[in-house]
Amino acid sequence: MPGSYGIKCSPHFAMGMVMLIQVGDIPQADFPADLPRRAKDRFTSILARETE
Ligand SMILES: [Cu+2]
């Protein structure tokens, strides 16, 4: 299914060790409310790079 899928490294999730798998052309992301700030920052950075 098209979308953006976040993957986390469980022991380092709070430090922002995440990756993003994008399926399809549209980078969409719905962040969970309890997403750690560093992980959210990393996802936001990845998505910004992807749309340049
Ligand atoms: Cu890690």
UniProtKB/TrEMBL annotation:
SUPFAM superfamilies: Cupredoxins. The lineage of its organism: Bacteria, Pseudomonadati, Pseudomonadota, Alphaproteobacteria, Rhodobacterales. This is Plastocyanin/azurin family copper-binding protein. Gene3D superfamilies: Cupredoxins - blue copper proteins. Residues 2-23 form the Blue (type 1) copper domain. Keywords: Copper, Metal-binding. Transmembrane segments: none annotated. The keyword Metal-binding applies. InterPro entries: BlueCu_1, Cupredoxin. The keyword Nuclease does not apply.
